[in-house]
Amino acid sequence: MDQTKQEDDYGYDLFPERNTGKYKKGSIAQSLFTFNHKCQVMLQFAMETSPYAKLLLNAMKSSGCKVFKDRHFSCEDCDGTVSGGFDAASSQIVLCQNNIHQQSHMNRVVTHELIHAFDHCRAHVDWFNNFRHLACSEIRAANLSGDCAFSNEVARFNFGVKQHHQECVRGRALRSILAVRKISREEAEKIVDEVFDTCFNDHAPFGRIPHSKKDAKFAYRDYENRDRYSANL
Question: Which among 38, 130, 144, 170 has the fewest CB atoms less than 10 Å away?
Answer without folding.
Answer: 130
